[in-house]
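Cross-posting from the modeling subforum.

Setting up a comparison between two proteins and wanted a second pair of eyes on the formatting. Protein 1 (sequence, then structure tokens):
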Amino acid sequence: MMKITWRPITLELKNVFRIAHGASARRHNVIVQVEEGLGEAAGVAYHNETPERIIAYLQTVHLAGDPLHLVDMLAQLPQGGSRAGRAAVDMALHDLWGKRLGHPLYRLLGLNPADAPPTSFTIAMDEPKAMAERAAASGMPIIKIKVGSENDEAMVRAIRRATDARLQVDANGGWSREQAAAIIPRLAQYDLQIVEQPLPAGDIEGLRWLRAQNPGVPIFADEAIKTPDDILAHAGAVDGVVIKLAKSGGIRAAVEMIALARALGMQVMIGCMVETAVAVTAAAHIAPLCDYADLDGPLLIANDPFRGLRYDGARLLLPDGPGLGITRRAD
């Protein structure tokens, strides 16, 4: 049997992270280790993921065999329960696979890290002035603005005046159909790249209706996109989908979902939760398959105990170490 261990970790955010679902100053994740491979599970309440639920899943995982036989190892993972927990073990197995073979994961997947799209930087909801100051101070060329409040246009306008960065907005399902149809054309004047999850997850017909209104900005679905069936259900209703390892259940599932979205003519954003360098670096290894990246998790937290992915402005720099290339901070 392969040795599996885990430990909860509390992440302290640099700023209060306020979105349409609520606000938080801390996140509670779980770091997983399979032999020498590392993974991470994000405890995201609005996805029904808590450390307790994640650990309950991990207690059901029993792996045996040769870790070089990656497909066989992944096939042993229980399919029910916590998707974030399954994603963490999947990451750890990919990390272990790369470490045993002596190559970084992107190379084993045949990907060129230079093809990864630049990442956005997220500005959580706050007073418009504070949001604008944060956006300008970041110096980042792509800003994702959390919206879904009565102050949305004022927030976007303030940020547009403070920076010439490309702008994206993410409502996290915070608008009704009528609100979205009214606000998106007004926000479009501020030169938006995309609008993410304008309607509550599951309102596929609403998304289809909204897209038919020609709002002037591509619409992406996020919260509802967890499985290949979800992508199939959203075909024709949105312009693109946001794929995250914690939602999909890991790297292998995410790669398959990216291929499906491409086959259906959809664009793809690779995203992250509020996570350490472990999970975000894992996602970055498959970023070259995607059109957009929202992989700023390590930039949002103050106590990341790991090193991996680095940033040259918005450019993603993948580590060359074997597997995910993660190291632990000495300080």
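Protein 2 (same layout):
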Amino acid sequence: MPASHDKACELLVHNARIHPCVTDGKIASETNFTVRGGRIAAIGVDDAVPAHERFDAKGALLLPGFVDCHTHLCYAGNRMDEHAARLEGASYAGIAKRGGGIHSTVAAVAAASEDELIAESLPRLEALVAEGATTVEIKSGYGLTPENELKQLRAIRRLGELSPARIVPTFLALHALPANADRKRYVKTVIEETLPAVVEEKLADCVDVFCEHMAFTVEEMRAVFERARELGLACRAHSDQLSNLGGTRAAAGLSARSCDHLEYSQDADVQALADTGAVAVLLPGAFYFLREKQLPPIDALRKAGVPIAIASDLNPGTSPIASPLAVLHLASTLFRLTPEEALLGLTRHGAAALALEEKVGGLAVGRRADFTLWDIPGPEFFCYQLGGIQPHAVYIEGKAYVADKFSPRHSRVGGNPV
């Protein structure tokens, strides 16, 4: 006797080459799964199971949705002139000293309304989703005043309402010192005014700090992290990008979820990450765009068993790269990550950097049915070919979306939704 309509799953995907990325980046023996309530209900089921919608993948590669765990995509304006200056030999630090860098974006964000921020930022978010990103972290940090940081975080929240992707907002509490500001007074304002306001409006669940010789000290980072933890916020750090101030060790000791960049990290820093279970987030886009020479300590991270995530670092000054596929390619080419390491870095370990590893970044029963379909031989192809690759479909919570319009596609039972 046929199962009742109520017992039918929402979606059955079959005939797929599934790379679940839950433990490794290898293909699974199962070729099908079902979706119910936007979550994966079962893997390796009978193809005859009742389903409202059936999708024959016809042997396509099926991957978890990418998790871009480090972006600054909510901003106004651009910094093309600075890129031209760098091509002529100017340094990142030198541009910042002349009033450029982060401060030029700060001025553009201050001049933009919340609606204007959203209008400029949404196409960048759409570009990430079009290439398979289904979870995207977005940081503030271009406000530098309580008013403008809150404006930026509110815009990020609204981006999450406009996109089908899961948006993870982060308050980048210490990014740059405002022009002519008193350091102690500025950090005090962040701790006593901005942090409580962010918590009151529930605009973020994590704070970040740029710990660097041209940004903020370990002591300043520690003060912000300690207050953030009192308020119930998690912590992450930009550390060891241009120098080693001990920021990675300090952040790990304060239970940071991740430390990001890490070009100048040393053995003690790697050990601190391993001891605390923090994720190393590598950002090959910034390394490429700034034409850096100092590589992150990849071998040491491997040997210590530190989870390695990769992310776009999408931002206007040092990584204007709205492409997770470019990040996969650059991570392999520049950092010599294996194709499996790169794939896990943009799925399983990217999710771990956001403390979402039990919800996204892998295909397992109970997790969000976020997945993508590709007509390529295997994920190694991402690290081989640069450009000219697009997913057949991006599914978020079991629904297929047209990436450029974010409109759900529906098919008749037995049809192909892509």
